[in-house]
Amino acid sequence: MALKNESSQCPKCGLNVEFEKYKKNEELYFYCPDCEYLIKANIPNLELIKEIILFLLNSTFLLSIPFLSLYFYEFSDKWDKYLPFIFLFSASILSVAFHEYFHALTAFILGDKSIFAQNYLRFDIRKYFFSITSLLLPFAVFLLTGIFLPGAAVFFDRNTLNNRLSLALVFISGVLANLLIFFIIIYFLGNFPDILSEQSIVLLHTLAFIHIIIFVFNLLPIPPLDGWGVLSQVLNDTIINFFDKLGFFIFVLIFGVGVYFDLFDYLYPIYFYILSNFNLSSDYIYEGIQFLVIIDPQEIKSFADILFKKLSFNH
User: Which one of 45, 79, 101, 231 is most buried, by most CB atoms within 10 A?
Assistant: First the structure.
């Protein structure tokens, strides 16, 4: 029979909490019954090894799709109509996965062991997409623009992170992951241009641009984006909680207003500045983006004009 022979003091509320005796090979999490702070976590070495193996398997699978599609696009004439889309879309998904994984890994290193319990360290893309509603708006934007910015997220326990600097590091780590991938692409384009065809160079320029959009967009101080997460660390807890509860609705409102009044056009100088500084071709990027645009906005506009005219005529 388990004995209550271990006790700890909650570092958040000071409550003395007794825990049942446990085996060292069990994965257990002990929360304060008063404030729900994660006081202690026992993660066996065998479970850590298992997590590393799953990470390697998942990352290999996600990496293989863009690499294989680019390889066949480079050396085979078959499926040329589909391979550019597969490469850019799968690489975008991979970027999202790395973005969220870096959030999780940083939180885990800084003390949030609940990250392990939620299987975020396995690099399983399914764990980062938390609801179908988080994909609807991004998918609509993707159909029209070719840029996929899904509502992926990692939910971490803020109580286990000791200070606001740690929280800011967790929020900014996802953007740093995208910057790292961006610089890898730039290094590859700058040092190995002779081994790639012009078609593949077009795709890599486009992928670099997608990463520019991802990290610039995520740095906007709009809840629930990472820029807001960093900025909010200098604000009052009441303000943070208010915006956290309404974050999704605020984002949809601001995004809708921004699209309607063309406010996002003010980001173009930032994009062009980065493109010029890293020798990325806007012509290549425009050509590459066409592989991703599934629905032409002009066709939608023409269809809507015809529909409205018919409705007006019938009325």
Answer: 101
